[in-house]
Amino acid sequence: MLGDGYFEVPMNSHDAIVIGAGQSGLAAAHALLARGLRPLVLEAGDEPTGSWPHYYDSLTLFSPARYSALPGLPFPGDPERYPHRDEVADYLRTYAAHLGAGIRTGHRVAEVVRDNEFRVATADGTNFTAPIVIAATGGFGNPYRPALPGLDDFPGTVLHAAQYRSPAPFHGRRVIVVGAGNSAVQIAAELAEHAHVTLATRKPVKFSAQRPFGRDLHFWLDRTGLDRLPIGPWLPGGFTTPVLDTGRYRSAIDDRRPDRRPMFTALEGSKVIWPDERREHVDAVILATGYRPDLPYLDRLRTEHDRGVSRHHRGLGFVGLEWQRSLSSATLRGAGRDATHVVRRLLT
């Protein structure tokens, strides 16, 4: 069970400091509290919801509510439904309010250095110290933008999926969505109802049934234990999960709404050049090309880790990095497991 709310943090020296108050930071704080420590959580934003309020408007989870909760608080409502983005943000607000951790919003961490302990400096110059620091800022703040030929000189609209909100600004326009993951396919299919859209990918899109044998895929991942296996470090570079589909997205692509094409070779002015050398005018390019760890405050430290525990700095841990330990590491369902693992190792 969760506690009874926030407590006041009296001074700037703490048992542990967690950087980020999204799903990973809240899970880390819960794991620390369970071991008898009183962590300070520093969050750059104005509330403890992480990146969830900033995702595109139509986003729903790919996992049912039953498999989309942090330790100590089940996701409310029908456990078989797929919660909307705003429901996840509300859930995190509730979780934070009952966690019993010291959470300070509006505290962007600028730098972490190692003296006798870790010194954590915020953008306003405040310093905090602790023997344990857990970096839990995920990757949303560091969207990956590939170096595509001609993209820097393209005069049209260029957005990363992190900036996309809704199809309204693209009505009637010629749009290319770059990427082959869940977000790329969701965004392209949504846009195709309002615009002429091509999904540009380096390889064919890989699909996986959302509900094989009458059960959501996450039921089988949980039942078989595959979701918990610590195989993250052994996954090949560039590994991505298949697009979860009830049949809707495969049918949309088969119907060319959107159409799927091999990746273009270049942009030249406002025109795209396809592999067959055809050229056509394009109004917008949306990059659904993933994220990289958002850890600029660790520039003075080394960030190599073993399943979330630093290889070089005793007391430094990570929660919320993609594949850091398992297939579910950067998800609501996996954050609690990873946090428990990281905290246990940091304290031994």
Automatic annotation (TrEMBL):
Transmembrane segments: none annotated. SUPFAM superfamilies: FAD/NAD(P)-binding domain. It comes from the Bacteria. Keywords: Oxidoreductase. One of its GO terms (molecular function) is monooxygenase activity. Gene3D superfamilies: FAD/NAD(P)-binding domain (3.50.50.60). Signal peptide: none annotated. Pfam families: Pyr_redox_3. The keyword Oxidoreductase applies. InterPro entries: Auxin_biosynth/cation_transpt (IPR050982), FAD/NAD-bd_sf (IPR036188), Flavin_mOase (IPR000960). This is Putative flavoprotein involved in K+ transport. It comes from Lentzea albidocapillata.
